[in-house]
Amino acid sequence: MSPVRRPTAAELAARPVDRVESLAVLVGADVVVEWCAALLRGADPGAADALPLGWLGGRSAAGWTQDYWPRVWAARGLLHVYRPEAAPAVVAGLDDDSWRVREMCAKVVRAQEIGDAVEGLCRRTVDDVPRVRVAAVRGLARVGEAEDADAVRLCLDDPEPAVATAAETALRELSRRLDRPL
What we know:
Strand content: under 5%
CATH class of the largest domain: Mainly Alpha
Number of helices: 11
Number of strands: 0
Low-confidence stretches: none
Radius of gyration: 17 Å
Distance between the termini: 47 Å
Mean pLDDT: 95
């Protein structure tokens, strides 16, 4: 990575989408995507050649203590600046130890329509964390096929109301997208 200035106080306070898009203007979208994918794969966010983490994490990047936050912020960056080369890192992130990373990767799959993630999303429909299950069924609505509807259907009886509601909506979206009843 090439050296780049640290974000200003105003940039640190900006919305994540604005920060990552500003960084893409400074260094190029390809560099941002490569950096986010590397962080998602576990690259050292404090490496000498790394970009300033504040571009992804904002003010929170100054005091993060859990090792998963840079991966969460990297995945969130890929919501807004994306290239298909990042797909393998996003798909792998669906199996991250941190539920926050799994959830954000499922959101990236949905937003960027990463079809290679279907198997990982199906696994996440039985995740221990309801927010991950919600993100997984929403992702399947966008990229799943008819055979993946069973994984979504299982969530209709989820004890967490948000998961069951997301599953109902996902089945309708999947049916509409595939133009067939499920």
